[in-house]
Protein 1
Amino acid sequence: MSDEEHHFESKADAGASKTYPQQAGTIRKNGYIVIKARPCKVVEVSTSKTGKHGHAKCHFVGIDIFTAKKLEDIVPSSHNCDVPHVNRTDYQLIDISEDGFVSLLTESGSTKDDLRLPTDENLLTQIKEGFAEGKDLIVTVMSAMGEEQICALKDIGPK
Amino acid sequence: MQGEPSDLGHLQSIMRAIELACSSIQMNFNPSEAEATILSLSQTPHPYQACKFILEHSQVADARFHAVAAVRDAALREWSVLTSVDKRSLISFCLCYVMQHASLPEGYVQTKVSSVAAQLMKRGWLEFAAAEKEAFFVEVKQSIIGRHGVDVQISGINFLASLVSEFSPSTSTAIGLPREFHEQCRVSLELDYLKTFYSWAQEAALGVTNRIVESDSAVPEAKVCTAALCLMLQILNWDFQHYSSDGARSSINVFSVDIRYNGSSAIRSECILVQLGPSWRDILISSGHVGWLLSVYGALRLKFSSEGYWLDCPIAVSARKLIVQLCSLTGTIFPSDNHQMQEHHLVQLLSGIVQWIHPPDEISKAIECGRSESEMLDGCRALLAVATITSPFVFDGLLKSICHFGTISLLSALMSNILKSPMINNPEEETWSCVARDILLDTWTALLATAECSNGIAFLPSEGISAAASLFALIVESEVKAASTSAFNDDDGSDYFQASISGMDERLSSYGLIARASIEFSVPLLTRLLSERFAWLHQGRGTADPTATLEELYSLLLICGHVLADEGEGELPLVPEAIQTQFVDITEANKHPVVILSCSILYFAEKSVDPEIRASIFSPRLMEAVIWFLARWSCTYLLPPEDNRDSNNSLVQDTSQQFRKTICDFFGEHGQGKHALDAIVRISMAALISYPGEKDLQELICRQLLRGLVRRKDICVHLLVLDSWHNLANSFANDRTFFSLNAALQRSLAQTLVLQASGMKHFEASLYVRDLMSHTTAYLVELSGKNNLISVAQLPDTIMMVSCLMERLRGAASATEPRTQKAVYDLGISVMSPVLVLIEAYKHESAVVYLLVKFVAQWVDGQIIYLEAQETAVLVNFCMSLLKLYSSHNIGQISMSRSSTLINEAKAEKFKCLRALLQLLASLCSKDLVDFSSEPIESQGISIGQVVYVGLHIITPLVSMDSLKYPKLCHDYFSLLSHMLEVYPEMVAQLNAEAFVHIMATLDFGLHHQDIEIVDKCLRALKALASYHYKETIAGRLGLGLHAAGFKDSDGKFLEGIISRFLFSLLQLLLFEDYSPDLVSAAADALLPLILCEQGLYQQLGNELIERQTDPEHKSRLANALHALVSSNRLSSTLDRINYQRFRKNLLGFLIEVRGFLRKA
């Protein structure tokens, strides 16, 4: 077998683009996809044919990862779809301001103050109560296609 | 309501209350109160007098209905306390009631009363003396033969019908008795009564025949006749077990399901064989029963035009059903006179039936003009029944004795007529012609499948062969026509489509049988039809729309596949007998029709490699058919294994040898075999990369065609030297091309490629696997070493890449065999640290984590038993760090999303991961069971038990009660838990309190699970725990120590000891909750050591239970039972087999004794 070239090398650099093309036929359930310019998580894929002897097409049902809206799309399975670059970063929570913004500590030691508290009731109370009790909280921020949202919370500190 | 109320006023008040309740239920006014009133009637002790009063006096039919239902419930409940006079009087009251009120309009009350009579009679069947039963039946017989008028006659017959259905195990009502009771009743009725009932029904029907035949319009006697016919039909449908031909079945245990048909004959339509013994001969055969039945139906047929009778009127329907049923009569009822009597019987039946189906064209025309098709369908069913019990020769000869044509000719005439019907190819509706076609196809299958088994030597009469030939021609013509007309239909994606595929598969295999019956004709026909279409495609390329031709080819290829080869179902399919035994005279291989047909398809398929031709001709769907055909064909014909040639079957040897030689030479090692294999690999390769996104096609190639090839070692050897295969392996290993395949298919392909190493030597195989996966491992190592991994890892293309590569690794790991084990081990070792790094990097991407964990589980599963102690240590350490890492990411994590769907999906993904981790632990456990290493692993200081406990310890906090709702996870968790507790109970003592409490909480949860298997596992775990503790403490050691004694938890709350807690909750479960009776012995095994450990607590719990009883009689019964539970049957305080067995008996007796009144209280 030849090993003259390393085809598998990753060509993209970090943060290069917001989306990435991928063949529709290879997108699986639980993957990500852009439908109507929104980043979605795929919750259902089914295939069908255009006419008996035509080509296959994929039917995607996705849920917008920020707004939770349900979106659908049909794409010929040999065509490319856009897959969003979904990034998740952990920050330590250092403050909650009264106007509904949080103050986060980045890995480099600076602070990030432009993120609002989540709208989800459950997560919101968890954050507020945990912070009030003085726990060390790590929040996970999900970002894709220029939008950001707090999506998870973890308590690492002592009680 | 009090027991046995006697004064009239009281009875009337009860009646009014019930009537009121019935009407308020009907008007839906306060229904729950009304229901309670009605229920209270049946729950009163001895409500019989009140019920009888209601039955006789109430004007409200519903009230009577509920009264008789109450009689049933109360009598079954109180059966053991009723005197035998009471019992008999209840039954005769019901019987008399039915007879006396036979003319009342409310049929449902009558039916209920007679079924209650039947149930009570069954309940007492084994205790009544023969004379007592006789007394009931004398009355019944009087009414059936018509002494008391038509209505009473019908009631009598209906009573027998309920009785027969009560006694038949499949239709009996539950009366709370063991199955043996039902079985004894069944045998008794079958041997002593069924024939008598049949003769009464005959007598009743005979008695009214003249009235029916003579009158021009419908007479009430017709109903008697209908009821009698139904009863006869019901009796013939009885599952007779004592007359079967071999006699062996009577001794088979009653719980076995007997299989009438062997798997090879795929009969779909219902056809129940009626196997009867010689004692039935006089009433069914020699009494002229058939002649009478046919004459009655014949007379009815003439009346169909007149008023009151029509083709589907009840009497006609039941007469026809009985006729069809009589066609399937077999067994020792016919003497062993060379089938003469049976043939005579069948000829007589057919002489009547033939009018229903002959001449076929006129009949189908009449049906199209609006006549009912039921008579014609019943005729087809009769043919099916006859075909099931006769050989093809006898089948064909039956009609010849009365007509100028044979039965097979009639069958094929019928079939061709139906195939020509315009309705046949309408997939939306199940039309009569489809039903008829399926029944007739089953008839053919029944005829031909028996012939297949008998080695096929001249099994069909020559007319039969030509009939099959012309029929096959028609079938193909009709299928092709259907294909071309449906080519433009765009009806896909529906659920119906899937159902019709499996239906079509069954149909095609019947077609295959017909084609094989006339193989000399059918194979050349298929060759001709195919080559015509190949030519059309080439001529019309680029100009005409090929869609119709493509669809025709699609269905022709499917038919060819079914004709030439059988489905292997994992085994190596042989060349079908019919093909082996025919064409013996053809010695030149390239003139052999099967070879010509195979070659023409191969040649056509090979053209798909040319991109230009592929684009213009080979649509994805056509390619699917091509690949499917190649997969099926290559399993049977390609490079046949050498040792097949010296088959031991001397019967077929001489004829098939010739054939085998021809085919071996042609598609064998020294003929065209290698070329064909090469072609197949090239076709697959081209198809894999040039149909992007065609998942179905790619799946067929990966999962069926290629997988089928590497399944055979001798083919692997040939693949090894093929350039085309090297190409495939090379581009899989080194190009990006195959990343366009779905990741799951890449896994399958990796598995196939690694499996192919079974054709190599040890050293070569290792090298080959290493080369195949070297880029994969290199990529993962490189990626995991990047500084900016965290941000690179989250890029979509990296995620896709990592997913694909992990799937490939998993595929390779799943193909681990002794020859490749070392290479796969090295493979895993080289990605060990990248896997850990990636689990860290993808901690938010559970889909990727799942793939990583799944690979590790698969890898460990394949490797563990082979590993030496040193290697095991490496592997175990790796697994532990993986578990720790995983758990540190997931404990205390709360994910949120606005979408509940997304939350559920995320949870489901987490549980899949968790399950994979449990599987990982389970495969670690297997090291203690099977171990091929040269020195024991303990030499390296590893104890598998300890390792797995540490693993469990890490994982259990993640297993929440919520997650145990996922059945698969739940199953795996409890399997692992019960295994661990059974095999290493001593390790439990070492767990810390928190982990221990958690494990015990899940065990408690499992005890109350509705899945029997899970409860059983938990009980086994409990038994292991308790018996360990008992044995240890007897020996003066600590046992479970603090866990058993109870302790204070971190909040200062005192927690009861584990043994006492489970003793309490198991007793609670056994006495007061619902569970399956199958669990009692497992529960006994767990309860015995628990009681032995905590005898004091057992006494205390027992006393509390006794104190709670209010009824002094119950108190003493309970006290005695509790005492007997631990003392009877010479129960000792050891934990040995005999003692466990004794305790099982004790517990069963205890539960029977006390559970009833304890639960009611």
Protein 2
Amino acid sequence: MPAVHGGERRWEAEAAPGMAAARPLALLVLLVLGPGGWGFADPPRDSLREELVITPLPSGDVAATFQFRTRWDSELQREGVSHYRLFPKALGQLISKYSLRELHLSFTQGFWRTRYWGPPFLQAPSGAELWVWFQDTVTDVDKSWKELSNVLSGIFCASLNFIDSTNTVIPTASFKPLGLANDTDHYFLRYAVLPREVVCTENLTPWKKLLPCSSKAGLSVLLKADRLFHTSYHSQAVHIRPVCRNAHCTSISWELRQTLSVVFDAFITGQGKKDWSLFRMFSRTLTEPCPLASESRVYVDITSYNQDNETLEVNPLPTTTYQDVILGTRKTYAVYDLHDTAIINNSRNLNLQLKWKKPPENGYIHYQPAQDRLQPHLLEMLIQLPANSVTKVSIQFERALLKWTEYTPDPNHGFYVSPSVLSALVPSMVAAKPVDWEESPLFNSLFPVSDGSNYFVRLYTEPLLVNLPTPDFSMPYNVICLTCTVVAVCYGSFYNLLTRTFRIEEPSTGGLAKRLANLIRRARGVPPL
Amino acid sequence: MWASFICWWTQDQAEQFFRSGHTNNWAVLVCTSRFWFNYRHVANTLSVYRSVKRLGIPDSHIVLMLADDMACNPRNPKPATVFSHKNMELNVYGDDVEVDYRSYEVTVENFLRVLTGRIPPSTPRSKRLLSDDRSNILIYMTGHGGNGFLKFQDSEEITNIELADAFEQMWQKRRYNELLFIIDTCQGASMYERFYSPNIMALASSQVGEDSLSHQPDPAIGVHLMDRYTFYVLEFLEEINPDSQTNMNDLFQVCPKSLCVSTPGHRTDLFQRDPKNVLITDFFGSVRKVEITTETISLQRDSGIMESSHEEGQRDEELMEPLKYAEQLPVAQIIHQKPKLKDWHPPGGFILGLWALIIMVFFKTYGIKHMKFIF
């Protein structure tokens, strides 16, 4: 019998056998007081489900997606709700104070490479993204939006306070509500992205603190920052929306989903091997489910690995599998339920291991980079081509500037890159017999043949003519001419002006030749010299 | 004789009780440098953060400002870590860090607003310095500085006069009981020269005209990890625990010239108590005076707080019709929706004035007789 009223405390404390007779009377009194007097609330109806999905990706990497979903059967719009159990109080107060209908906030570092990794469950843009649907009772949506982004920046230690009218939009056609919605007047929707926002441990810490089991039990023990940020892609998000409470959908429950997706790189974290285990990914193993969770499961995607020849071995063997059409294709998942005590057996922990039975296909790569003026690039690759397919191999290179003495006399012609070589072993349609070189014609004995099922061929591509940036070689001559002219005209004249001195010279009195000349001139009538 | 001894002992206890008049502790830790090669400034700030948290000050009483992100920087070979010792011995970033002002938010304006309390009303609680007149505040700043200024993020600076004025504002608003100011920059002593408010004690890593030097680089990370002064302060603080009786005179002796190359300085003339009576934990820890009592208090259970939504929820269930989820891409509806008309605003005063001027000039020039053709 729970002690409820202050008045009843004294009665509870002295529970002597003699009071047993008085108890029915006291009970009657309590019932008379009526349900209005009940101070003890009903057990709160909220539930937690946690799940982890491990997906080996085609490129050898592995993706892990955590989802923690708290569903609360309550009407948060009414004031007076002060009893929070699994649903975090920080977010519950936000919903009631700012009259939110939906909130979606994500922090992402990296980019999901759909071409190599396949389609994602839920992608988010790099940086921080926040989009919110407000209830239609809100009068000043912009003011609520500004205050909400400030409050969220304090909760998640992010610079969300930089969200203002310069980076907020009101989408008119997309971002429809993901939860229950009667009408969608886009006036109550706001969307903003901060691409410069960095995600680091200080954003993960408050995100973890919102979880009911924090990082102490269940799947959240795997969330260690030093492993989660050493990844090619890291995205954590918070999604709040109203959902149907039951199949008839007559009342609303609030759903909070916290998702975290990471992609571990095969080369950086896996040291080049494609074998993965929980310990290698997170440096931890699972020991128990979260006691507050009603479901705690790990799913491993084993779809494509049952069909091909090479099989993915999952250890320990799953007891159940789950098959469904996900994102348009049929997929199979191995299911590990942490509530099932057989999973976490006498070794007291669960360390899922994914091992490949056959070595990977890609055979051999040898690359020797160039050294300036010493040796060229060399790239050799052994590839197994699938039938009826087209494979493209491309290499990017940059063009550099040469020293001016290294150019040919006709540099605008371009520079040649040597052709690529393709050496292939092609399967023959008709089996060939081994030939005796002396007896067969010469055209059949170019290449030695080991067995008749395939033949060897060596093909070459065209050479590549590359235009390098060419300087203007006439410029040195032009510069020399111009400089010399300027020096001669300007400096030379100045030098002459400064250093030339003038002297007066006496004319010479002359000699015999001059007197003779004067005689002749007098005779002519011309003035004398 | 015993009586006099006991009398002296209780008097000493009483004196100890009144040694410091503070009831709560706050810390404002600022790193002002951006870019990867200033890794050591972030490591400096984080090592003080770590010590302060270890000695008891909670995150809600620490305002941590880091001007750049080193832990998750793409150049960091070990993501989510910031090391203070080479060979990666001590990760000062930890697993439980809460950075209040990060990246572009670390500006002179925000710093001064935090100190003086003049913050916009929508600032969240974790970004405020909610100190009162019984708070002891530790302010630690590090970065690049010069004679009389400290550089913020390579784009602006704060002068020692501005800082002194900010502290005076804090004193006049009764926002601190005692303040300890530590700065680790080049020519750091110039920053505390201009203080004039009471109850401030200041420490700096170098005198005017001297440079503060960095400690040791790590070959794997490729940058210098810590500055010398803060490195030795961290070593000193690692020995302190919440019940240490070490006082400020020991902190003044940390990092002599032989280790630090620069000469650390300190200023105590504005401080009312003798530094030898000031415990390290008065500023770096959150040691409160606690009086244990054996009285019992009986509490009345408040029956007003109850979850009344249960009954109302039941009533609602009968009234509401079934709800449905929205269609994510209703193509027909999108194509046929009308674009939202922008709210019409009347033209502003400037436009009206301009048009009035044009019309007036026109009629003055060409005469009033043209009016009948216009209107």
Protein 3
Amino acid sequence: MAAAVLSWALRAARQVLPSPCPRQVRSYYVDWRMLRDFKRRKMAYEHADERLRINAIRKNSILPKELQEVADKEITALARDSCPVRIRNRCVLTSRPRGVKRRWRLSRIVFRHFADHAQMSGVQRAMW
Amino acid sequence: KDKSAPSKDSTTEGVTEKQGDGAETPKQQLLDIIGNMKVEVSYRKKLQQLKASKYKEQAMNKLEGLDSEGSVPWGTTEDTLRGKPLNPELVKAASAVASSLPHNKKQTESELLAQLRRHEETTDKQKKGETINIRNVISEMTVKRQSPAQRGARITGRISLHLDEDGQSIRPERSSARIDSRRKAYIYGSLKVGKRLNIFTKASREPEHALKTVSSPTIWDLEFAKEVAAVTAQPPRNGFEEMIQWTKEGILWEFPIDNEVGMEDDAEFHEHIFLEKHLEAFPKEGPIRHFMELVICGLSKNPYLSVKQKVEHIEWFQKYFEEKKELLQEI
């Protein structure tokens, strides 16, 4: 009976227990700008539905114009960080705002570094 | 013997049809003749065996019952009595065979037909998948228990194996192997058939009930469990174990990739497309209705949202327009 109880407890604990194998975990952001970008992304995700619906009312030729003006005012009243336009695709490792390739989310310098050390799967130096 | 001849001809015709249309080489004709000869011999032997087995095993009641039916013609009534009517060719063959034998013709014919019928019943049962007690089946029947036509075909098949087109290589092993495998399959059959030996007992269900009565584990139990897990969980020895661990944690996807992981949309297609029932709260005419119908049209074509999300979308608009009602009425 004790063994059964123990097995039940083990099953429950396994979900709580973090992995015992040590692995590098990113607990800090490279710089504050990266942090702010992260916050903007979070907010944009939260308000995405609302913005979509209000914009659907605004960009309309059927509804009366007064309604659309009210919708305009509403959308400007939302938090500034909630719009997706403010998100900048920064490099994930160095937080570089320019020269970032979207597929790898890395800046060109980091990409080159890893590719030369053969740490990018399927990437080869071009030669033709 | 006249009756037996047409039956043999029918078997030969069947055999030649199987072997092919054009190539009636002299060798094939020879084969046919040999085949027929063998069939003749086997007929006799088989019938003798059948009769011997029947006289031993069948109860006298059955015989008396058959006799008591008396003057009624055997073939037709017996066919119609049982459920599935026998193949008329088989019936003809049985009657021909019975007539060729010296003993009581009517009795032998009835016995043969009964055997055939039983055979058909067992094959039907096997097809339907009912559990058959193979031992009973075997005890009832004799070893060579197939209808004469099938038997003839089999033997000709064997002969054709024996002699190749060149007439040089003889392969007895193949035919014998075939026979052995067939016999084995016949005897051992399916796994679920046969008497239960009761070697393995089902685990009793008491410990499950005992578990439920115990209260939830205390903090000490949890801590102990955590310690044990930390000790037993060794770091992965190789890449495979590492990948297994990652899959358990959720870092690595499960292969083959299931595109619908996490998406449990149990709604039918009509709930996605026919969304007009949600539009009941809106006014039936006017620009708002027009607008909402467009919204619904767009939602019905959207495969990425679940039904819940779509309903929420419509409800949001409902709330929004209700708030702006006074404004709308001014217009």
